[in-house]
Write a structure and sequence with these properties.
Order of helices and strands: EHEHEHEHEHEEHHEHEHEHEHEHHHH
CATH class of the largest domain: Alpha Beta
Low-confidence stretches: 236-243
Structural class: alpha/beta
Strand content: 15-25%
Number of helices: 15
Shape: elongated
Radius of gyration: 22 Å
CATH architecture of the largest domain: 3-Layer(aba) Sandwich
Distance between the termini: 14 Å
Largest sheet: 7 strands, mixed
Number of domains: 2
Number of strands: 12
Bound molecules: 2'-deoxy-thymidine-beta-L-rhamnose
Mean pLDDT: 93
Helix content: 40-55%
């Protein structure tokens, strides 16, 4: 396959989703023999997220005029702006200069956010004609990841299934120094869900279906949210959640706080757990590939756009009523009372069916490479 030069532009707005998706895409392109420069305004998270992975990607600071000289020796074949960010004007001006000297012009793609809403299939592949600036007359193509065949698909590395089937849960838990005694493992990666306290109380009282639960809490906002709730509970209760034995003298909930994991280890976490709580878009996709029961906290938007987006996602999953009700409460979109967790076997079947169906679609990186080979 022809190797092309890809230039990916990433602006970190907040949280880890922007850089997380950009890094995953960059690493996947590179693993398939493509050459990648990742231009990012804040690469701090890559220190832990990308740890030990993919020397083939060049990570570069957001470009200024002197930095784009590299284009003279290695011109850009495919320019990807991610999540509505505009590529640096100096970079575009350099592309335009090269174009007038050599006729070489990059394919210009705007990679959009993931959603299961119907507008995605309608908008995928539409192009805008640029009416001003050094690249006037060029086209910018809107490329939408998605869950159906009329969209760009989802990120899924070709070796994912092989790695997953070779995964050794106990060895991994040991390497993470997690003190596990066969409890039901639940991962928690969230913002500050209004029903978090209720979830902790439910787990403390009943574990999962009466079996002890061990909660593995992701670093950052999830850890802060859990710790501050436990600190609030302390004076009322005189005990920490998770330290209370139940009527049989057994502890129903224990908690481990995780360090920041590499993306590879974040996958391992999702594979190791029986139930995953995830947030944002990238970890939701990874939870689908993990094939385990999961709950999604959607990224909340001020205009309420996350409500219909969550509905569309639940429709795509063919989620039964109990899974919808739990999602709506977890996301603060319906009532104050957190319903019981869905029954595990049917929950597992719903996710497994979605995972199997979605794995049959071409993945995002394959689609992008094919599109670039055809349209460049
Ligand atoms: O961090 P997020 O909430 O990102 C969000 C959303 O993507 C949202 O749509 C976007 O608009 C906003 O950012 C700006 O959740 P997300 O998308 O799951 O990204 C988290 C990334 O962090 C994902 O790639 C997994 C990775 N990660 C690790 O690699 N190690 C870890 O320990 C943790 C907790 C996460």
């Amino acid at each position: 396959m022809r190797s092309m030069q890809w230039d990916i532009f990433c602006k970190v707005v907040d949280n880890f989703g922007d850089i997380g998706v950009c890094w995953r895409l960059a690493a996947d392109l590179s693993a398939r023999g493509q050459r990648v420069r990742l231009w990012v305004d804040d690469s701090a998270a890559l220190a832990w997220m990308a740890h030990g992975a993919c020397a083939g990607v060049q990570v570069l600071p957001w470009p200024k005029s002197m930095d784009v000289n590299v284009l003279e020796t290695t011109p850009c074949d495919v320019l990807i702006e991610t999540f509505g960010c505009d590529a640096a004007p100096d970079f575009i001006a350099a592309c335009a200069r090269i174009h007038s000297a050599t006729g070489i012009k990059p394919l210009w793609i705007n990679l959009e956010y993931l959603s299961a809403e119907p507008y995605v299939a309608r908008s995928h592949g539409l192009a805008n004609l640029l009416s001003s600036g050094p690249a006037v007359g060029w086209h910018k193509v809107f490329y939408y990841p998605g869950f159906t065949s009329g969209t760009g698909g989802l990120l899924r590395e070709p070796d994912l299934a092989r790695r997953q089937s070779a995964f050794d849960r106990e060895a991994w838990l040991k390497r993470q120094a997690i003190d596990w005694h066969g409890e039901t493992l639940v991962s928690l990666f969230c913002y500050e869900p209004p029903a978090l306290e209720q979830l902790l109380t439910k787990l403390e009282q009943n574990g999962i279906n009466g079996r002890p639960a061990h909660l593995l809490v992701a670093a950052g906002r999830a850890t802060e949210a859990v710790k501050s709730l436990l600190a609030l509970k302390k004076p009322r209760n005189a005990h920490h959640i998770g330290l209370q034995p139940n009527e049989y003298g057994r502890k129903q909930l224990s908690i481990s706080y995780l360090p920041q994991l590499s993306q590879t280890d974040f996958d391992h976490l999702l594979w190791a757990c029986n139930i995953n709580f995830v947030r944002g878009e990238d970890s939701m996709v990874r939870a689908i590939w993990a094939g385990k029961p999961f709950i999604w906290q959607i990224y909340p938007q001020n205009d309420g756009a996350h409500g219909p987006k969550l509905e569309a996602f639940l429709d795509m999953l063919a989620a039964p009523y109990c899974l919808r009700a739990f999602h709506n409460a977890w996301n603060g979109l319906a009532g104050d009372v957190l319903p019981p967790l869905p029954e595990l076997t049917s929950w597992q079947q719903t996710i497994f069916a979605a995972c199997t169906r979605l794995a049959l679609q071409p993945d995002l990186t394959t689609g992008l490479i094919e599109y670039a080979l055809k349209n460049r």
